[in-house]
Specification:
This protein has 11 helices and 8 strands. The protein has 302 residues and is an alpha+beta fold. The chain folds into 2 domains: 139 residues, Regulatory protein AraC (Jelly Rolls), CATH 2.60.120; 116 residues, Orthogonal Bundle (Arc Repressor Mutant, subunit A). The strands form 2 sheets. It has a 5-stranded antiparallel beta sheet, with helices on one face. Strands 4-3-6 form a 3-stranded antiparallel beta sheet, with no helix packed on it. Helix 2 runs antiparallel to helix 3. The chain is globular.
């Protein structure tokens, strides 16, 4: 953990050295600022999965401050119990949804943003962090600036400072192994191509769009992400199918074709294996997987 910083300015000033050269200071580093910042709150557990129920997938970072009430955040294939007084950073193109709230009422702060340098935050992937007094103070300043100075740079600068504090906190408290997080570049590019709309692209289409051969794409994806690209694409197809089953009026056969399955039978087998219910059963249950499957997933290692 970082050392406690005295709050008294006089004490801090007394520690400063006398510089040998007053005109030679510390050089500035390249600073990548967050952009397109949005702050909002959730007060009820039923509102957490809005604007649409089920697992969300988008290109933005989602910074969560659980100020009151513990809830499980399901990120990709991991169930993370986010306790009251903790925070979590969800990365771009990570599936996530919320379940098992301790209470119906809650107070959660959400800050969503875009950032060109995702690698700088990789140590925070899948890692809840404590809301220290310093982080709470910065978050309060950020929310106040966001409300009062919507067109100014101050909210962006405060968020950049908050993220810098988070990087220091996580590196000091829980250093992640070098191979724990996938290299985000290839994963993001694949997910961006998948999310463009229309029918789900196949491996050859993805490889062509990326300018490499299918075999090279398979090897690079497994090396950087720790899973085969075929398995990742199946998960994306099934997640897309879940959204269409919950929200759309299409027939199951149309959804199977739209999501790239060779037949409705292949789609039904894959869907039941993943969620423990048939596609129609999932639709009629309001988008709920089998409890047995949820228990298996919560205890499995991704």
């Amino acid at each position: 953990m970082p050392k406690a910083v005295p709050s008294d300015l006089k004490e801090l000033v007394s520690r400063l050295p006398q510089p040998m050269h007053q005109l030679l200071g510390r050089p500035a580093t390249t600073l990548v600022l967050p952009d397109n910042l949005v702050c909002f709150q959730r007060r009820a557990a039923d509102d957490l999965n809005k604007p649409r129920r089920g697992r969300a997938l988008h290109h933005r970072f989602v910074l969560i401050f659980a100020l009151r009430t513990t809830v499980t955040v399901c990120v990709d294939d991991r169930n993370l119990r986010l306790r009251e007084g903790e925070g979590l950073l969800v990365f771009p193109f990570q599936f996530h949804h919320y379940t098992e709230a301790e209470r119906a009422s809650l107070s959660w702060l959400f800050v969503t943003f875009e950032l060109a340098d995702a690698e700088a935050l990789s140590g925070l992937r899948y890692r809840p962090f404590p809301l220290t007094p310093a982080l709470r103070s910065l978050a309060a300043e950020l929310v106040a600036a966001y409300e009062e100075e919507r067109a100014a740079d101050l909210p962006v600068l405060l968020l950049a400072l908050l993220l810098a504090r988070l990087r220091r906190l996580r590196v000091s408290a829980h250093a992640a192994p070098a191979a724990a997080a996938p290299v985000p570049g290839l994963l993001m590019r694949v997910n961006q191509l998948v999310q463009r709309g229309g029918e789900m692209p196949g491996l050859k289409d993805l490889a062509k769009s990326l300018g490499i051969s299918p075999s090279h794409l398979r090897a690079r994806f497994r090396a950087s992400c720790g899973v085969s690209i075929g398995r990742h694409l199946r998960r994306l197809r099934l997640e897309q199918a879940c959204g269409l089953l919950r929200l759309g009026p299409q027939r199951v056969s149309e959804i199977a074709e739209h999501c790239g399955f060779s037949s409705i039978h292949a789609f039904s087998r894959a869907f039941r294996a993943a969620y423990g219910v048939s596609p129609l059963g999932y639709r009629h249950s309001g988008g709920k997987a089998s409890p047995r499957v949820r228990r298996i997933r919560s205890s499995a290692t991704p």
